[in-house]
Amino acid sequence: MANENKKVVKVAGIGHSPSSIACTNDYMISLRKLDRLLEIDAENFRVKVEGGMRVDKLNDILYDNNMALSILGSISDQTIAGAICVGYHGTGTKFPILNTYVSEIELMLASGEIRTFKNPNEEFKAVLCSLGCLGIILSVTIQCERAFKLDQTEFPAKLEDVLSSLDAYTNSADHFRMLWYPHTDYVLCYAASRTDKPLNPRKSNWFKDRLIGFYLLELLFYIATFFNFLIPYINLFYFKFFSTRQQFVDRSYNVFNFDCLFKQYAFECAIPIKETAHYLLKLKTWLEDNPNVYVHFGVEIRFSKRDDIWISPCYEQDSCWLNILMFRPYGKEYTREKWWRINEELMIECNGRPHWAKTHNMRKSDLVKLYTKFEEFDAMRKRLDPNEIFINDCLRQLFSN
After folding, report:
1. Residue 14 CA neighbour count, 13 Å, CB half
2. What is the pTM of this model?
């Protein structure tokens, strides 16, 4: 029907992406009921699930079978198909993005044909991160590992101290990340490694975590929409309040995931790890040189190992992910154009690549310089979807000059 009527078809996940990559005014398909467990091989730690299964549901299934995903991002409420489409990542210099653990994908093409892609088929490297424009992911087979616990230590540090010894910090744990508090010199570091220690989960504290950490924060950022000069003080207060050193042991997915709080806009890019200090110190200096620009904490900084997936943001480069956000307290908007612009300029300066699920302004002329396989991917896209039924306005911008 879509081919005949020249309509666009997009698959909607849970709507987590802050961009319009999955939006259309034509036909939208939900995979929420396509969420069954198809196969599980507990001996070889492999699982096959339908594309609409949420990652958090998969986490529970795997744990019940003494298995776990090797890497997870900050949240797990995406569908597995949606996560795979845009390059779902966590952190850890020895750990690539989740897509690299996928061994087989079943795809429904624009013609209605159902085709299975797997190694050593070279086109499999395109399907592994497809932006939803090659077809609809019906099922995914993922290589997992034995269920594991993570021992995480959280500690404060100075941004410049961490950047001057970045290799030491990133190599100090399986999974290292940090959160920079703009308008301050401080970061909160998180270092997590696999462990056999007994469970010692984080102690929940409603007063600190919810009343202060969520409800009061949203109220303060709302007040700051009228009095922007308060933002640096809010950032500093929350760093001081939550920066005590602590350590806990929990199931892997409970450590990988954390509360992203309330509504927000996000810009994220992956730059070569060697450019991390240059990017962040230049960003910090720019903020100091523009005293009328006020931005929220925090800038989340994570790391991924290189891969060979055609249009993965980590294609052939060990990467540092920089996630920039501005909150929307009670839905109220903040001016963010200058903050977004400087980050996009620094991304380009550092030969960085945008996170496919986040907003950015790159076009094909920019992307072919960053991805040696981009032209091949585009040619494959045109071959599999000649009527471009999977291309909406957002994707059309990517594939035009």
Report:
1. 16
2. 0.94
Which residue in 322, 304, 324 sits closest to 314, CA to CA?
A: 304
Phi and psi at residue 285, in whole multiples of 5°? -65, -40
Tell me how far apart the alpha carbons of residues 370 and 375 are, in angstroms, rounded to a whole number.
Answer: 11
For 106, the enclosing helix (H) or strand (E) is strand 102-108
SS3 content of the chain, % helix, strand, coil (to 5): 35, 25, 40
Question: How far, in Å, CA of 361 to CA of 230, rounded?
Answer: 31
**DSSP character at residue 130:** -
Pair type for strands 67-68 and 299-304: unpaired
pLDDT tens profile 257-269: 988 888 889 999 9
pLDDT, tens digit, 9 for 90 and up, residues 330-372: 999 999 999 999 999 999 999 999 999 888 888 999 999 999 9
Convert the pLDDT of each residue in 50-93 to its tens digit: 999 999 999 999 999 999 999 999 989 899 999 999 999 999 99
236 has a pLDDT exceeding 90: yes
Measured between alpha carbons, how far is residue 55 from residues 111, 167, 295, 304 in Å?
A: 28, 31, 31, 19
